């Protein structure tokens, strides 16, 4: 451990032993300067800095964790942490004994520990300490062991594996290619052969297609945002090659599995309704499968927007009622919105590049209603669909 890492770890340990500092921060009514001055009269400067930063991060962490106000993380580990709802969904497949390689601050680890006995492994001593404290916050510490080592030094391969490779292995920011992850693709493929089953967490933007033969690739979205691609292997893999899963704000889970070639969707003119697919469905390649299951048709061979004449309810699509169809020309759009009763306008596009804010400034929006303008290809032609959100 470097002297810098040791110093940081000792700082957080001292902070952990001084929980009253967070009560002082929360109850303070004065300025930031006054708060810092008060705290520095009672605590070392590095502990004050760490406390103020962590207090800020705990507020941000509420978007990911139900117990964020008690948790421990730094900026990078919070940003990379799996949201609690996604971790809990994935963890339900696990049981028995599990290794959580590259466990970080323990977001997945605490969820896994609700179903299994988990050994978390991470190279960073501070992250191991965070994971230990977070397992206590979630009352699963008895199910957790932490090892501060390189994963290559862990020789045991009993049970299942969860691994979250580092997507920021250097100082240059995020990497997209799995070959640039740490551990890299070659090591991940070796681990698949060594463990009886498990899951690999990847960025949904990564080049995962075709890299993990014989596995199940699941794209998971939360509140309409695609959060990760999970590679399920061994005895945890499902029968289908691809799966798309949508988790709603209320925690409801919808999942569809298959292969992109399992279904064909016809192309038709716009009907009464327009549907914007969940990004997990699009990224998994299962758009036609989900469309066929719901009886929807495409607007264009290359366009993800779907349509129907009859109303369709599906957790995989956001529905809009189509009010008008226009040419995608400035003069036609300006003329239409001068007489329309819209005061708010959401502009959506997928395949056609649109300068959204520039277009919005050109339109007269002096009415009262909220509308949606969708720029899309209809059988190869760029058109504008005026809609209202259902």
Automatic annotation (TrEMBL):
<keyword id="KW-0489">Methyltransferase</keyword>
<dbReference type="GO" id="GO:0036261">
    <property type="term" value="P:7-methylguanosine cap hypermethylation"/>
</dbReference>
<dbReference type="InterPro" id="IPR019012">
    <property type="entry name" value="RNA_cap_Gua-N2-MeTrfase"/>
</dbReference>
<feature type="domain" description="THUMP-like">
    <location>
        <begin position="318"/>
        <end position="389"/>
    </location>
</feature>
<dbReference type="InterPro" id="IPR029063">
    <property type="entry name" value="SAM-dependent_MTases_sf"/>
</dbReference>
<dbReference type="Pfam" id="PF18096">
    <property type="entry name" value="Thump_like"/>
</dbReference>
<keyword id="KW-0808">Transferase</keyword>
<dbReference type="InterPro" id="IPR041497">
    <property type="entry name" value="Thump-like"/>
</dbReference>
<dbReference type="Pfam" id="PF09445">
    <property type="entry name" value="Methyltransf_15"/>
</dbReference>
<protein>
    <submittedName>
        <fullName>RNA cap guanine-N2 methyltransferase</fullName>
    </submittedName>
</protein>
<dbReference type="GO" id="GO:0008168">
    <property type="term" value="F:methyltransferase activity"/>
</dbReference>
């Amino acid at each position: 451990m470097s002297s810098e890492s040791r110093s940081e770890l000792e700082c957080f340990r001292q902070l952990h032993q001084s929980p009253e500092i967070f009560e002082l921060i929360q109850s303070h009514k004065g300025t930031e300067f006054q708060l810092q001055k008060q705290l520095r009269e009672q605590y070392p400067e590095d502990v004050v800095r760490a406390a103020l930063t962590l207090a800020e991060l705990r507020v941000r962490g509420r978007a990911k964790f139900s117990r964020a106000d008690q948790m421990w993380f730094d900026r990078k580990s919070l940003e990379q942490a799996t949201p609690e709802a996604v971790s809990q969904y994935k963890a339900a497949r696990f049981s028995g004994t599990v290794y959580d390689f590259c466990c970080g601050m323990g977001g997945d680890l605490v969820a896994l520990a609700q179903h299994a006995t988990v050994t978390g492994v991470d190279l960073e001593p501070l992250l191991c300490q965070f994971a230990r404290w977070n397992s206590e916050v979630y009352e699963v510490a008895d199910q957790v062991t932490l090892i501060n080592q390189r994963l290559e030094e862990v020789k045991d391969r009993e049970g299942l594996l969860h691994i979250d490779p580092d997507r920021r292995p250097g100082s240059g920011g995020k990497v997209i290619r799995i070959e640039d992850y740490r551990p890299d693709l070659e090591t991940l493929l070796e681990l698949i052969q060594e463990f009886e089953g498990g899951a690999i967490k990847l960025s949904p933007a990564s080049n995962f297609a075709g890299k993990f033969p014989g596995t199940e690739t699941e794209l998971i979205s939360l509140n309409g945002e695609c959060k990760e691609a999970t590679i399920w292997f061994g005895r945890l893999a499902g029968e289908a090659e691809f799966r798309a899963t949508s988790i709603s704000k209320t925690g409801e889970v919808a999942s569809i599995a298959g292969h992109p070639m399992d279904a064909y969707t016809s192309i038709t003119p716009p009907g009464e309704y327009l549907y914007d697919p969940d990004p997990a469905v699009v990224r998994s390649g299962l758009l036609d499968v989900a469309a066929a299951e719901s009886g929807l048709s495409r607007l264009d061979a290359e366009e993800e927007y779907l349509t129907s004449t009859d109303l369709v309810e599906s957790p995989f699509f956001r529905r809009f009622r189509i009010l008008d169809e226009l040419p995608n020309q400035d003069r036609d759009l300006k003329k239409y919105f001068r007489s329309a009763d819209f005061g708010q306008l959401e502009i959506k596009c997928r395949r056609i590049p649109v300068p959204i804010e520039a277009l919005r400034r050109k339109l007269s929006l002096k009415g009262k209603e909220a509308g949606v303008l969708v720029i899309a290809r209809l059988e190869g032609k760029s058109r504008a669909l005026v809609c209202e959100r259902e």
